[in-house]
Amino acid sequence: MTNTMMRRRDGSCEGGRSMDRRGMARVAALGTLAVGLVLLCAAGASAQMDDVDRARRMHDRIAGVPPDDATLQTMATHIGNGRADLAAELAMQNPAFYNVSLKNFVTPWTNEEITVFAPLNDYTATVIGMIRDDVPFNLVLSEDIIYTGANGLVNPNYQQTSNDHYLAMEASGVDLSDPAQLVRRTQSGLPGSQVSTSEAAGVTTTRAAAQAFFSGGTNRAMWRFTSMNFLCRDLEDMNDITRTGDRIRQDVTRSPGGDSEIFLNTCYGCHAGMDGLAGAYAYFEWDENAGRMVHTPGVVQAKNLINGNVFPQGYITTDNSWINYWREGQNSTLDWRGASDRGFGAKSLGAEVASTRAFSVCQVEKVFQHVCFRPPKSQGDRDAIEAIADVFEQNGTYRMKDVFAGVAEHCMND
Ligand code: HEC
């Protein structure tokens, strides 16, 4: 705070906004020196100092690095003029927003450990590129899209069978904020691709997601992590024992430990909904030996049929159809607004997920945690999140930078 005071340039007491109560409270906490200054100077200049303070904080939180002096002053002026959104947009022009802040924001979504300590990959790069280029973010689970380094920029170019392209990008310090370096392409157009435009499902069908969530298991993990990362809900939150159970697969015992009550009261609540949805991924597999995602349209991967003897009368996966039983019941509150409650494949399921109000609110909540360094706690926080989600959805723009700007403004006084 002393720093801020020394940074004040014009020393004038005019022209500032009157201080809000929060600002007053903070000044009150500063002790005799600050009180003396306030008495000398009245509220105006202190408000300006506050704006510089807010601007610095906003820049640090958005970009992860401090602003240069010119940027700081411009941001403070915007904030003083009631245009915190313009200040936030300026902070988002710092390359560190893409290379550091967004990378840290997205990386945990791309692995089962939910760790930020992982190299750049095609999933992370694609989300960063979509945010940079204002691609409507509700396409993140359904578009035929991928971001790679520009052709020939690093060695090797994109490979289906390794992450080396992205490792090389990181090693050589490629600037992800630069549209000439990180470029938008189609998954279907990449050499060796096994997905067509009508099958590519945004980050779901990136190599990194396949490695993390299609490897081993029964492909239910892809649903679980899609739900966690894009609906902000884990399976416990979705558990609903009132749904139809006809899609629960054969591998789920109907009497765990000989007790059918346990099945009906626990297993059923997750698997009735989840197994109906995860059918969308039936043609996908991660091939560990080849180091790549495998997609076999029309052919169900064996992992969907394992342990069929556990409950032979259970559901047998025959295609990649999905049905969303969670549109009804307690999970109707997610507000599903998609074209249909059923479909085929990961792409239409991705669109179904992104159609929800829960998706929009979840993106805001994630940014809130990232930018404000805390979860929402007050009714004021909840109201702000809903309002920012409204802006996010407005006219179908789904512009993530609007979310960062709205959230940064909301907590710039914290
Ligand atoms: C809270 C939600 C939830 C409940 C309750 C639940 N499951 Fe699951 N189940 C999952 C998820 C998620 C997966 C996928 C795990 C993964 O692959 O990471 C799974 C996977 C499975 C699998 C496949 C295991 C494999 O090889 O990957 C079986 C079998 C199974 N569950 C049986 C049961 C039984 C039996 C019960 C009740 C005793 C039960 N589940 C309760 C969510 C649930």
Task: Describe, in short, the structure shown.
The chain is mainly α. It is 46% helix and 5% strand.
List the helices and strands and how they pair.
Elements: H1 2-7, H2 21-28, H3 32-63, H4 69-80, H5 84-91, H6 95-106, H7 122-132, E1 146-149, H8 164-171, E2 182-185, H9 207-213, H10 220-230, H11 235-238, H12 260-278, E3 284-287, E4 292-295, E5 321-323, E6 342-344, H13 345-354, H14 357-372, H15 379-393, H16 400-410
Antiparallel strand pairs: 1-2, 3-4, 5-6
Helix pairs in contact: 3-4, 3-5, 4-5, 5-16, 6-7, 9-10, 10-12, 14-15, 14-16, 15-16
The protein binds heme C.
Heme C is lined by residues 217-218, 220-221, 224, 235-236, 239, 251-253, 256, 262, 266-267, 269-271.
Plain-language structure description:
The protein is 46% helix and 5% strand. It is mostly helical and 414 residues long. The protein has four domains: 2-91, no CATH class; 94-213, no CATH class; 217-355, no CATH class; 363-410, no CATH class. The strands form three sheets. Strands 1-2 form a two-stranded antiparallel ribbon. Strands 3-4 form a two-stranded antiparallel ribbon. A hairpin with a 4-residue loop joins strand 3 and strand 4. Helix 5 (84-91) packs across helix 16 (400-410) and helix 9 (207-213) crosses helix 10. The longest helix is centred in the first third of the chain and has 32 residues, at 32-63.
